[in-house]
Every structure is written in structure tokens, then in C-alpha cells.
Amino acid sequence: MPHYLRFQMSLLGLGLLNVLLSQPLLAGAVAPTRDVRSLVLLTTRHQAATDSGRVERQNIVVEANSSRPTGKQAAWFGSFAEEESTYDEDGDHGRVGDSSNPQIQFQNGWSPDIRSPAGQTNKVEAAFFHESRSGGPQAAWQTHSPAVTGGIAGHSSDTGEWYQRRAGNWAQEYNPDSKKMQGYQGNVIDRLTKPQTVNPAWFDASVGQVDGFGRKKMPGQMSGRRLVGWEERATNTTLTCSTPGCTANSTLYAFNWHEERAQRCKLSVFFHPTNFGHEGKAVDWITVNDKRISSRCVPSLESGCNAAKSRMLYPCVAEVPLDTIITSTSMGELRISAKISEGVDECPYEGNLLSAVPIVSCMVAPHNPSPMLGKMPTVPSQKELGSQLIASPTGQIAIYPLKCQTAGCVVVEPINVYRKKGVSFSSCTMKILINQTDFDSTFGNEVVEFLATDRQNITTNLKPGLNPCENAARGAPLPDDQWQNFVAAENVDVTDEVNEDALVVYAKISPAVDDCASQGNLLDGQVEVQCVAGPWTNPGAEAATAAL
Prior knowledge:
The protein is α+β, with helices and mostly antiparallel strands. The protein has four domains: 3-71, no CATH class; 77-229, no CATH class; 231-366, Jelly Rolls, CATH 2.60.120; 371-533, no CATH class. The chain has helices at residues 3-22, 34-42, 188-193, 307-310, 382-385, 468-473, 480-483, 495-499, 539-547; strands at residues 45-49, 55-59, 162-164, 170-172, 231-236, 239-241, 247-253, 260-271, 283-288, 291-297, 314-321, 333-340, 354-366, 389-391, 395-404, 410-414, 425-434, 448-453, 457-462, 486-493, 504-509, 523-533. The strands form six sheets. Strands 5, 6, 8, 11 and 13 form a five-stranded antiparallel β-sheet that branches. Strands 14-15-22-17-20 form a five-stranded antiparallel β-sheet. It has a four-stranded antiparallel β-sheet with strand order 7-12-9-10, with no helix packed on it. Residues 1-67, 179-185, 369-387 and 543-548 have low confidence and may be disordered.
């Protein structure tokens, strides 16, 4: 039967079905509700053959006595449009989508056009040189060049096409379920009444992302599946205050900065509906680490005076990326604040006019555990194990970390040596230890550019001289005592700075120090200050006396 005739008959069948559904079934019986009719008809599908012979799925929605205009489909907005299929970031076409979507060309941060200036025709295609990303021993992904379309025992699969972005990198498109519907024939009535074999992707498009060997498509640039071996973790806290116009503050740690690394941290903040709504009754602002992420939010128009509704939570911000907020200086700490307007003055939740729950989620993994990447310096540091102010027989020892993670980074570390009021130190000396990372100067000037305090330069262009990763790669790993706790400075007199509570240590590595991190840090060390209690003569006071 010709396709166009089958299509007309299918439409006729739909019309008859709709008429039947719009009439009472029997005398005294209740006709199906409008919602039921919509549900039945929404589940009918039709495939019309295109000129290229491929079959496309069309949703036919018929609703009796409906004059409501047809809205845009989800795909028109660049969103996941696979109906009741399992959500997949790679299928969210506004972010990953098919290769024709211009938005995906910029996911890796730049988009120059790569063209051959020679215009040669007898060249080897670029795909020949592409080695697709691997999931390692923990995940099997589809591979490229050539793409494998076969499978075990002859079970082939139509996988997503590979395409090259403007920057030259390769990606694999999400395979929509319409591509899996080829060969699914028959009119709508037949599909409703007769048993047929239907491709599983018709029920859930996620099935269409698996090839004949059971391998999933290579995850896209924005897919969490790329982070093999990582886990998603969520942490929450509360924000509360009880008076009109009040401000609430809270702090949470998204992850353990010293033991873990994190990516894709996102923050959501949910509010109980107290007295928000009209006449300026709103959450005036929300900030994270002093950066505003929301203004004049009305979480809900529902009244919190209703006991049942007051327990509900409504979002003011949902999954806000924290990439530029969690930095090396914040160390995973999030200082969250929110303020309500003066008009929010009744219906408190558990005694609070502002009652909110911030939730942060991150993909986290331990720092690389390879022995070549370093261990903790032998003496624990203050920020990792609490207040590490160690009482010595003659005074105090203070230990602080000196760490940063990026090439060319700078550390500013205030040092506070505790003492009771009126107690001074007769002498204080400072030692700085660092672990060797990328200091072999194989590729440029790989040095500690300077170590200093506010009052003195300690050293410049320090060359620790080793890269443990290079030695390990050559099969000759260094003993621990050769690359750990390199003495960068010692016996530095900081007595006056400690007694005046003015000791700040500065350190910077050169931009060429860019690999072989120790515990995730390219500069990984500590400052140790040892002080002896005793009388101290303030040099500033002596100078002032001499001037008189």
C-alpha cells in the first residue's frame, strides 16, 4: 500500500477512535474523561517515509472540542525531547545535541575554523588519526575510525554519527529514537490493537545509545559520564533568621579540599513559604562567597500560614554553577547569605521568617593516589588537622600549609602564633618545606620565583631541581626522602613580625611548573615557626624613644 494512502487511513482511524471516545459507552455509563482521551491519543505514533527513505516519528494529538492553540515542541527550545525516555545530558540538544546545533561548537572554550590551506584531494581523512576517548577499565564506550556497527552474534546497531567541530575535536551525536524506528510499519489502529515487534528505542531512547557490543556512546563534553571513577555528592545546611528584613548566614564545605578534587559543583537554595508575595515581600538577595546569585526572588505566592503548605520548599536558585566561586583560596568553603525584605513579617516556619535549605552537589574524587604525586609533609598542617599550635618546652610551634594548584600560582598565608595576653617571644625562627613537583627545568624556568614576608625577601628563583614523575616514568622512582620535605628556607628570623602579629608568608611558582602535582598541588609545602617565650624589646618603640 502506498505510504500516503496508509497515512490517510491512519488519520481516518484516529478520527473514528476520537468519535468513539467522545460518546458514552452505554446508557448510564460515564464517558472517558478528557485527560484519559488525551493520554490514549498522545501515545499513538505515526511514521511517515521521507524522500530519503528514512522514517520519522510524528506525534498526533487529537483532542475533542479543543480550541487551544498548539504550542512549540520541546526540541524547538533546544531541550531534551525524547518524551518519557530516560534523561541524558547528551540528548539535551541545547547543550550537546546533534552536530548541526551551533551551540555545541563552543563547549571546549574556543572555535576557530580548521581548514586545509593546500586544498589537496589525495589526503588521508582526519578521522583516520582520531583516537576516541576511553573510559578505561571502568567503562566501555563506542569507538571511532572506523565506527563499529556490528555486534555479538550478528546483532548490529545504528549508532550515533561522529562529527568534527570547528576546533578540530571529534564528538559523537546523541541518537534520537526516530532513527531506530525504520521498518516499524502499520497504521495507528493496528498498533493499538495488534501485537507487533517494536524496537526498544521506541519506548526509551537511551536504548538507542548502546551498540551491538553493549557499549554506550562516548559521553559529550558536558556529560557527567566523562568523569569515570568520580561520585556525585550532595551537602546541605540551613539558613534561618526570625525578624522582618533580617539576614541569615551559613557556611558549608562542598568537599574536603585537601583530600579530594571536585568538578561541576552546583548550588540550589530552597525556601519555606512564610509571607512572600505582593507588595515587595521577597528574598532581597542571595550571595555565595560575597558574589550575588539571586535578587528579588519570590519563592512562592502560597501562604505559610497554612500548616500543610508551610512545610513545602520552593527554589529561588536551582543548580547554579559554582565554577568561578569555588577557587583555590576558598578551599571548598561556601559562605551563603540571604536577606528578606521588611514586608516579610508573618507566618514564620518554626519561628523563622527566613527559613531556607541550601544544597550543593559536586562530582568528587580523591587526589591522584599515585606514589609519584607526593605525600603530606611529615608534620601535619593547621588547616588540615585543626589548630596545630604545638607547645614546646620553651614556647610554641605553629605549622601552616603553603599550597596552590595551578601553574604560576601565588600563595598568601597569614601566620598566627598563639600566646596569652602580655606574653612575648624572645626569638622566632621560620622554616619552609616543600615537596618536589615539576622543578627539573626540563621545559623552561621551573622554579619557586620567590619566598617572602611583608618585611623581608627570603629567596628568589629557588631551584629544588627534581620531578619525581619523570624518574618514575623512567622506571627509577625516587626514595621518599629525596623528593619530600625539600628545605626551601630555614632559620629565618621573624621575631618582630610574630610579636606584632604581622607575619604573612608569600610564595610563587613560575608558570613553567605545570605537572607532577603533589596531593593535587603544584606548590605543596608548609611553614613551620618555632618561638621561644621570653622578654622582647620592640624595635619600633626603641626607635621612637631614640627620636625623642
